[in-house]
Specification:
86 residues; alpha+beta; 3-stranded antiparallel beta sheet
Length: 86
């Protein structure tokens, strides 16, 4: 996973991009501490209790466009690596 500074709040998360539609984010802090997520929760609007931050999404999209973040290849185990069922 690649450390990435959010351009909205400056906090660091770890990100792995597998495709345009698949992004894995590992929060290095409690996501509720994100000022943008906290503001949504305080507003109590639909979807406000999710851990989605538009500022972070924009940061990830820009990092991909700037080639700071590249897509990872998801390696699946081979048949030999899978456990045998008896």
């Amino acid at each position: 996973m690649t450390p990435l500074d959010c351009r909205g709040c400056g906090r660091v998360v770890r990100v792995e991009k597998f495709s345009a539609a698949h992004t894995s984010i590992e929060w290095t802090f409690d996501s509720r501490e994100c000022p943008f997520i906290a503001a949504l929760a305080d507003a109590d609007v639909f979807g406000s209790h999710s851990r989605r931050c538009e500022q972070l999404r924009r940061t990830i999209d820009e990092a991909v466009a700037d080639h700071e973040l590249t897509e990872s290849v998801l390696e699946l185990p081979t048949a030999e690596q899978l456990p045998r069922l008896h």
